[in-house]
Design goal:
20 helices, binds pterin cytosine dinucleotide, about 25% strand, Aldehyde Oxidoreductase, domain 4, 6-stranded mixed sheet, 7-stranded mixed sheet
């Protein structure tokens, strides 16, 4: 196996005049230096598609071809006998660039009319609502660029044996990468095998296919030896996809009673240099605007979603994609309405929330919310935190000069999307289905292969629970296999909180089919009708006659070592079932979060004093995993709310290239969590299951932003940007005497 290192552009936009690799090639241990000239004929660029109007396609080559379009783009690849030699040789590759003008901001890109995507939506008379409403609010909100930063960066290892390309990839989407590599390398997809070993975090970043994946595979095929590339942290911060980077202008018409009468919004995302494959740069603004109406009744709504091209890395998926900004904007608006009308923030929400009996509810953006009970979730979380008592404590603290704030956020979240959602969005490269194969071997032990790998969500545990329950075997008898496309059926992958829904629809459904077969086989052995056979605790027995029983191992053996005369009732040999599943969703989950924060008036630093939430993902398969997902999601949301910001200068140079500069939340930033649940089952899904893996990240920035705004109320601070930077708070506080605020 040999190692690969990329030579990356120090310029955000430049023509590549010459690449001189002669010195690098001479270094001992170097096997080759590849440029676009070498790969052009071997690999096609990544060109994601989006059906419908308003889409300008881009082509992202495996190595920059003639021009670099962001700082950090891969220009050449060095292959050497070790990672150390490759890194040394990388330094010896001389690239001559001719710098070109750089677009480094949304405004610059808009002025140059560099639009990658534009889509509009209109429902009802927004102009009329804005003209006639007693109260109209207008505000601009911004969300900084974020770096998804999984603990384990990207990694890919490819091997071409003359017949098959075998790729070990740290990916969320094995089937998609299989199809894509086959297409860009001009191979039949059955000649591309993807294996996904344990993945140390993905958070949406690894749902994409990157040029690095293509370059490593193409070079391995060319060299005929296994080639490995593991991303360095600097590369992860500079050249992997980034997220959010959005500005939203909103106008909202409000009645005297605080009821929202109409909404107009325009979101512009800084999409970077290329559309990300396969999701495209449409995802972020479309996601935000689609979910902006939230769990509220507004029906009059108009939006424009825009993504512009800049000289930065492409914008991609990151936990809560689009929805985090949507919830932040809506929840800040509602708190502003409350403030302007002298209402409590909880009261404004009560007056606008969709009541449980109104579900299924079609939102102002045209989404069908299947289930939810936000009025109940709100009351439940308010009781849990003793909201009245909390406000009294806050008043006492403020009287003592402490800046304490309480923030509330309600959000609904689309999860468990199937093919229909991706087709409707025009995302033709995302299949939308999932699948699982469940096999019981002749000794009664069970294995399960799925199309969707886990990146830390605990799939092996929850799939095991579902399958073991249905097949009546102990959990230790079930093995969930790491994804290998040779053995696993085709699907889409783990993203968009589709895992729980997919495992219920595929793995559990496949186990149900096997159980029926076990009942039929056991019925034959026990001389009973299959319907009378109970399958539990590793045995099949006749209902009501626990002693008339056989072990499942005996039953399973029968399926493979056939009895004389064959299996009863024309049953086929073997105990294996594969189920392909198209999730009928989206299923809508949601939560109400309450954050209590304290702002340090000297430093502007925000500390989270309490964090409570009521979460609804329908029936919970595994409470410990679900709570763990909430912890992780909220932790990432805290990063977005207070810390994380990818910064580029006007020349497109990255200023936050290490984790010393890009501030991820640490243990001492994270509070203790008070989590409780409410279960409104989805009428669409067997068992009522809904997803939840992104929820924490959606709710936390909104709740924290509202809490900070509440803490500094009266000091003139406008909380309209994420992250909420201490220097912004302190600048405002500095302008006013500390005694000027009132409780
Ligand atoms: N679950 C459950 N009961 C439910 C719903 C979910 O027990 N009613 C369990 C599921 O069985 C699964 C987990 O909770 O083990 C998350 O399920 P789900 O919400 O369906 O989400 P996915 O499995 O599809 O995971 C994807 C989601 C997303 S989109 C991102 S991004 C994300 C996240 O999960 N990335 C993660 N959580 C992550 N957690 C870790 N550790 N690492 C990541 O990269």
């Amino acid at each position: 196996m040999v190692s690969l290192a990329f030579v990356r552009s120090p310029h955000a936009h430049a023509a590549i005049r010459r690449v001189d690799a002669s010195t690098a090639r001479r270094l001992d241990g170097v096997l080759g230096v590849f440029t676009a000239d070498d790969l052009r004929a071997l690999a096609r660029p990544l060109q994601p598609r989006l059906e419908g109007d308003g889409f300008t396609p881009t082509a992202w080559p495996a190595l920059a071809d003639g021009r670099v379009n962001f700082c950090g783009e891969a220009v050449a690849a060095v292959v050497a006998t070790s990672g150390y030699v490759a890194a040394d040789a990388r330094e010896l590759v001389r690239v001559e660039y001719e710098p070109l003008p750089v677009l480094a901001s949304i405004d610059a890109a808009l002025a140059a009319d560099r639009v990658l995507f534009r889509r509009r939506h209109r429902q009802g008379d927004v102009d009329g609502a804005l003209t006639n409403a007693p109260l109209v609010l207008r505000e601009t909100f911004e969300h900084a660029r974020c770096a998804p930063s999984p603990l384990e960066p990207r990694g890919v290892l490819a091997d071409w044996d003359g017949e098959t390309l075998t790729v070990w990839a740290s990916t969320q989407t094995p089937s998609v990468i299989q199809t894509t590599l086959a297409a860009v390398l001009d191979l039949p997809s059955t000649r591309v095998r993807i294996l996904v070993p344990d993945v140390g975090g993905g958070f949406g970043l690894k749902s994409h296919v990157f040029p690095e994946d293509v370059a490593v595979a193409a070079i391995a095929r060319q060299l005929g030896r296994p080639v490995k590339w593991v991303e360095e942290r600097r590369e992860s911060l500079a050249a992997a996809s980034q997220a959010r980077a959005q500005r939203m202008d909103v106008e909202v018409a409000v009645g005297r009673d605080g009821v929202l009468l109409g909404l107009r919004a325009r979101a512009v995302s800084d999409g970077g240099a290329y559309h990300i494959y396969p999701l495209t740069g449409a995802l972020e603004p479309l996601g935000s605007l689609g979910i902006l109406p939230g769990p509220y009744r507004t029906s009059v709504y108009e939006y424009e979603a825009v993504t512009v091209a800049t000289h930065k890395p492409p914008l991609g998926a990151y936990r809560g994609v689009g929805m985090t900004m949507g919830a932040f904007v809506m929840e800040r608006l509602l708190d502003t309405v409350a403030e302007r009308l002298g209402l409590d923030p909880t009261e404004v929400r009560r007056r606008n929330l969709i009541p449980r009996e109104a579900y299924p509810f079609t939102s102002a953006s045209g989404m069908t919310y299947d289930s939810g009970d936000f009025p109940k979730a709100l009351e439940q979380v308010l009781a849990a935190v003793d909201y009245g008592g909390l406000r009294l404590e806050q008043a006492a603290a403020r009287a003592a000069g402490r800046l304490i704030g309480v923030g509330i956020a309600c959000y609904t979240e689309y999860t468990g999307m199937g093919a229909e959602v991706f087709r409707r969005r025009g995302m033709s490269d995302v299949p939308g289905i999932e699948a699982a194969t469940v096999t019981m071997d002749a000794d009664g032990t069970v294995s399960c292969a799925t199309s969707f790998p886990s990146q830390g969500q605990g799939h092996a545990t929850t799939i095991t629970q579902l399958v073991a329950d249905r097949l009546g075997v102990p959990m230790k008898s079930v093995r969930v296999l790491p994804v290998d496309t040779l053995a696993a059926p085709r699907g889409s992958g783990t993203f968009g909180s589709r895992g729980a829904v997919s495992m219920a629809g595929s793995a559990a459904a496949a186990a149900d089919r096997l159980r029926e077969k076990l009942q039929a086989l056991a019925g034959h052995l026990l001389e009973a009708s299959p319907a009378d056979v109970a399958v539990e605790e590793g045995r099949a027995s006749v209902r009501g006659f626990p002693d008339r029983a056989v072990t499942l191992a005996e039953v399973a053996r029968l399926a493979y070592w056939l009895p004389r005369g064959g299996l009863p009732g024309g049953l086929e040999p073997g105990l294996e079932a594969t189920v392909y599943f198209n999730p009928p969703g989206p299923t809508f989950s949601g939560a109400v979060h309450v954050a209590v924060v304290e702002v340090d008036p000297e430093t502007g630093r925000v500390a989270i004093r309490r964090y409570a939430l009521v979460e609804d993902c329908g029936p919970v398969i595994n409470p410990m995993i679900v709570d763990g997902q909430v912890h992780g999601g909220v932790a990432q949301g805290i990063g977005e709310a207070l810390l994380e910001r990818v910064v580029y200068d006007d020349g497109g140079q990255l200023l936050t290239g290490t984790l010393m500069d890009y501030a991820l939340p640490r243990a001492d930033d994270i509070p203790a969590f008070e989590i409780s649940h409410l279960e409104t089952p989805s009428p669409l899904m067997p068992g009522g299951l809904k997803g939840m893996g992104e929820g924490g990240t959606i709710g936390a920035p909104a709740a924290i932003a509202n809490a900070v705004a509440d803490a500094v109320r009266g000091l003139g601070v406008r909380v309209t940007q994420l992250p909420i930077r201490p220097e912004i708070i302190i600048n405002f506080i500095g302008k006013r005497p500390m005694t000027s605020y009132s409780t």
